[in-house]
Recover the amino acids of this structure.
């Protein structure tokens, strides 16, 4: 059975009886279709359930938790995944998000917050669904294909992750307008950006690197320091990239944020 438009169809994998009991009552009161599972199931079974969201406590799955998360996110790219777990470290949260989870909530937490985060993830994914009447967006050497969640240069994919594509699409759709970091985060991540969060800068850095690798003659994403970013193809002057330049404040902040994330993952 398919979920009706606007309806959340959720599976919960958790053995925390107190949390599950309260959450299930809230889900029933809200009219959400949901199913509570006490252990992992093959991704094929999740596909058969026609879900649009999954809440899972990785800490209760033991050593198989990371493998399960990676398989689910790989096989069900349209599934919104929210991890709800107790006693997690920064390194664990970073690893989970990089494996494909959309959000991470630390226990103890209120069921209403979990539901709100699930709604945000589902809402963001619905907004990112390609419209059948939209063709590819072409900008200089870049072709952005919403129907494939991918971008191409000379017919070759530049291998964007789902979030990198959503970031590129959000900037390109603004058509030269400067988007503030908070607005970008709201559109791509689906909820308000926490103070000090550098996720937008880190992902912009990764996206720029891929664009530069595949289309070195063009500059696509421009920084407006203290404000945000703008997408507009500009042809690079030959040799300009080789000239030494002083590091800019935004560049140093991006690099620091990325180094902190990598350090946290290694701890």
């Amino acid at each position: 059975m398919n979920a009706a438009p606007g309806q959340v169809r959720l599976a919960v994998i958790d053995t925390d009886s107190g949390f599950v009991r309260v959450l299930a009552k809230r889900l029933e009161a809200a009219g959400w279709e949901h199913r509570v599972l006490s252990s992992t199931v093959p991704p094929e079974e999740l596909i058969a359930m026609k879900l649009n969201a999954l809440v899972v406590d990785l800490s209760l799955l033991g050593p198989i938790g990371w493998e399960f998360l990676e398989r689910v996110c790989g096989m069900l790219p349209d599934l919104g995944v929210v991890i709800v777990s107790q006693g997690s470290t920064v390194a664990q949260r970073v690893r989970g998000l990089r494996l494909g989870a959309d959000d991470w909530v630390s226990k103890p937490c209120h069921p209403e917050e979990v539901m709100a985060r699930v709604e945000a993830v589902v809402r963001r994914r619905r907004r990112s669904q390609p419209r059948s009447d939209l063709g590819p967006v072409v900008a200089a050497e870049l072709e952005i294909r919403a129907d494939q969640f991918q971008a191409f240069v000379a017919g070759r994919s530049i291998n964007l992750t789902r979030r990198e594509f959503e970031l590129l699409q959000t900037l390109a759709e603004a058509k030269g307008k400067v988007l503030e970091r908070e607005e970008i985060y709201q559109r791509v991540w689906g909820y308000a950006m926490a103070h000090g969060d550098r996720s937008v800068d880190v992902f912009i850095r990764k996206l720029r690197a891929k664009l530069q690798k595949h289309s070195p003659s063009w500059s696509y994403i421009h920084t407006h320091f203290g404000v945000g970013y703008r997408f507009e193809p500009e042809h690079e002057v030959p040799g300009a990239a080789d000239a030494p330049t002083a590091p800019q404040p935004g560049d140093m902040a991006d690099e620091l944020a990325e180094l902190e994330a990598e350090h946290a993952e290694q701890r």
User: Anything to note?
Assistant: Residues 136 and 145 are 5 Å apart (CA to CA).
